[in-house]
From TrEMBL:
InterPro entries per UniProt: Aminoacid_DH-like_N_sf, Glu/Leu/Phe/Val/Trp_DH, Glu/Leu/Phe/Val/Trp_DH_C, Glu/Leu/Phe/Val/Trp_DH_dimer, Glu/Leu/Phe/Val_DH_AS, Glu_DH, NAD(P)-bd_dom_sf, NAD_bind_Glu_DH
A Pfam family this chain is assigned to: ELFV_dehydrog
Residues of the active site: K106
Extent of the signal sequence: none
Protein name: Glutamate dehydrogenase
UniProt entry keywords in alphabetical sequence: NAD, Nucleotide-binding, Oxidoreductase
UniProt source species: Leptolinea tardivitalis
GO biological process: L-glutamate catabolic process
Length: 428
């Protein structure tokens, strides 16, 4: 499975393309195609064996015209400043398209968290906050989980910030554990958000979800709940999921023609989204190569692993039956692949619209922290559905009005909101 060599160039290319369509002022473009602030730091950690290891960390704040910067922290061995820049920029567009009053930020540490003990992970999380705590906070930048991080890690980070600032500050981080300032529904939010947008897209395409099949890339937080939601809420069938196998150092696709059971697969999946393939095989699943997911004869593809997965090479493997691509991951499709998808008339729900459910419930979490009053799961998910449905239709309407590709329409909606906020604040 290939990864796009430079996600930031890809994010800038997508932005430049729409900036050109909008005839956006060159100075406004200059402001938006780069992050406003970046922090690069080194985090020393006393390891269990008595040695000291120094980790490289980043936090990028792309634009906070509409509100505090917002976005996850990724722990990944292939993390780079450019990946974090791209992800921060996409967060600005995501919050604008979801119509939540937040800007765009993202963080990262170059590490495979599975190689750390629990104690080392806690020290690394606390070390990250020790480096950056003066530049984050509920009113300027609010991190959250992403690939390789989880609610427990957010709990440690919130605790460290509270200690350093001398005040219990749950709103500094979202995606915290339940009972530790977390919101009900955050775990499911991104995957269920993907499903709400698929439901709306299928209505638009006049397709019956109960007769639809899907192939999913990834089996982590986003993909697990996208699979569960697609099956339980829309009554569709998921024929495969995929994952990265740590031992073999390659990806695999785990398939079942009569449909996978994500609730069963979860029981044989570790906290990093790696499936125990021996147990899957014993339960009647077929193990195929990493790319098999994209070749499946299905109606819907849901890339929900990493960026750059649908590219000039893999796009040619998409089966002619595919009518819809719902981008659960950030940046899964390269600009070259977009051209082919357009040509083939496949409807796309672009990433920063499709996966906005996570940050939307993160926003709800911050609101609940501020109120010190917590909603039920049903209340959270109902509010999430309303937000995602409105966001989908705003983008669809723009796409139809301007006769443009859904990704370009999403950029148009987002750029308009961010530029207006910058103008209202007198920045432009
Ligand atoms: N967790 C969240 O709330 C949100 C996540 N996202 C994006 O969704 C994507 C997935 O995130 P999560 O589910 O949180 O991550 P995760 O770490 O929980 O799961 C990632 C999954 O992708 C698989 N994977 C990783 N590298 C792979 C490879 N090279 N080949 C095949 N499979 C591979 C892993 O095995 C795992 O199953 C990322 O792009 C992330 O930025 C976007 C919005 C919110
Ligand atoms: O929940 C959040 O604040 C951010 C989630 C995130 O990192 C993303 O949407 O890519």
């Amino acid at each position: 499975m290939t990864v796009n060599p430079n996600a930031f160039e890809m994010a800038q290319q997508q932005f430049d393309h729409v900036a050109e369509m909008l005839n956006l002022d060159p100075q406004v473009r200059e402001m938006l195609r780069w992050p406003m602030r970046e922090y690069h730091f080194r985090i020393p950690v006393h390891m269990d064996d008595g040695t000291i290891r120094v980790f490289e960390g980043f936090r990028v704040q792309h634009n906070d015209a509409r509100g505090p910067n917002k976005g996850g922290i990724r722990f990944h061995p292939a993390e780079t400043i450019d990946t974090v820049r791209a992800l921060a920029m996409w967060m600005t567009w995501k919050c604008a398209v979801a119509d939540i009053p937040l800007g765009g930020g993202k963080g990262g540490v170059v590490i495979d968290p599975a190689t750390l003990s629990v104690t080392e992970k806690e020290k690394l999380c606390r070390g990250f906050i020790q480096r950056i705590w003066k530049d984050i906070g509920p009113r300027n930048d609010v991190p959250a989980p992403d690939v390789g991080t989880n609610p427990q890690m957010m709990g440690w980070m919130m605790d460290e910030y509270s200690k350093l600032s001398g005040q219990f500050t749950p709103g500094v981080i979202t995606g915290k554990p339940l009972g530790g300032g977390g919101s009900l529904g955050r775990t499911e939010a991104t995957g269920f958000g993907v499903v709400y947008t698929i439901r709306e897209a299928l209505k638009h395409l006049k397709m019956d979800p109960a007769r639809c099949t899907a192939a999913i890339q990834g089996f982590g937080n986003v993909s697990q709940y996208a699979a569960i939601g697609f099956i339980e809420q829309l009554k569709g069938k998921v024929v495969c999921v995929s994952y990265w196998d740590r031992d073999d150092r390659i990806g695999y696709t785990v398939s079942k023609t009569d449909g996978v059971d994500p609730n069963f697969l979860k029981t044989i999946t570790d906290q990093y989204g790696s499936i125990d393939k021996a147990k899957a095989k014993a339960a009647g699943y077929v193990i195929e190569d990493a790319n098999a997911w994209i070749t499946k004869e299905v109606d819907i593809l849901i890339p929900a692993a990493l960026e750059g997965q649908i590219n000039a090479e893999t796009v040619r493997q998409i089966n002619p039956r595919v009518k819809l691509i719902a981008e659960g991951a950030n940046g899964p499709t390269t600009p070259e692949a977009d051209e082919e998808i357009k040509k083939r008339g496949i409807f796309i729900i672009p990433d920063f619209l499709c996966n906005a459910g996570g940050v939307t419930v993160s926003y709800f979490e911050g609101v609940q922290n501020d109120m010190n009053f917590y909603w039920t799961k049903d209340e959270v998910l109902e509010k999430l559905d309303t937000k995602m449905t409105q966001a989908f239709h705003a983008v669809l309407e723009m796409s139809e009005k301007e006769n443009v590709y859904m990704r370009d329409a999403a950029y148009m909606v987002a750029i308009d909101k961010v530029v207006k906020a910058m103008q209202l604040r007198g920045w432009l």
